[in-house]
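Posting for a labmate who doesn't have an account.
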Amino acid sequence: MNKSSKYWIAFSSIEQIDSTFIQRLYNYFGDIETAFKANLKDLSDIDGLSIKKAEKFVELRDKINLDSVYNVVADRGINFLTLEDENYPALLKNIYNPPAVLYYKGDLSICNFERTLAVVGSRRATFHAGESLNKIMSELCGTDICIVSGLAAGLDTTAHNAAIKNNLKTIGVIASGFDYIYPTSNKDLYKKIENGNGVIFTEYYPTFEPLKFRFPQRNRIVSGLSYGTLVVEASLKSGALITANLTLEQGRELLCVPGLITNPNTEGIYKLIKQGASIATCADDILNALGWEVKLPEQTKLNLSDLDEDEQKIYNAVELEEKGVDELISLTKIPLENLLTVLTMMELKGIIKQVGGDRYKKV
């Protein structure tokens, strides 16, 4: 810990101020300790700074014990970066209003901050959206691309889990301090990321709750850390659409996965595509849009000649879209008992998989 760390932490422990306030003082005084200790007369000399805000800051600042607020972070084993640190992500530092302090858990050294891709989408994602995202992630398997998302329910969770499954590092950005896990269902996912699969970032002091207004604030960090953002599903009023717009404001690449036009969650997707966002249906689309040269893993192709007659009938029936058992009986004319046996064998071989009850699709 260097001498200035306590002052950065003390600033960030005041809930009533934000990063723009901290940076304004830091840039004006040129030193974080001087900025923190400034009196009301010094603060009143800063052009555009609200006197009421300055008075509130001084009132709250004078109640802070520097050692106590620092120990809240240190005792929890939380690491942090400030705008003064060399390891602060350069891409994030270039956005408007970067976090003054980035608290984190995990291993910074295993994440490639030169190839970061944000993945965002609906919290109430459809099954097909998850399938599309898993397909794209599997095509990036084993590369050095780092997946950034918001550790929320829905497609954020799918993105992080798919990254881990495909040996990709991942960065989660949360909208609270580390005293809270939101949603609680992601407790195990938090641990997986912290323990060897990436990093969890937050700009919030450990005791800050996951209040509603903090989620849109968090989104600027998700896009700010990333060279591009992949939007998988987004309604017209969604956090994913907010992140998409922030991506454009930050001058980053925006990509969208198309979906069913009857799905309300794709209304935002097609709005973005009409406005010029790139379409992404595979890993190559992402790599081409971002100008990345990455060797993708060879995809194992199914040799149809290895299938017996019944297997070929079933495969042909599900090649374009999933089918239920009744539909398969009608299309293949295979008796139910035989059909169920063949379906089980094809699942074991990894040719098809069961989805949504008694429905099957090709892998």
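Reply:
Got it, the structure tokens are right above this. The chain has a mean pLDDT of 92.
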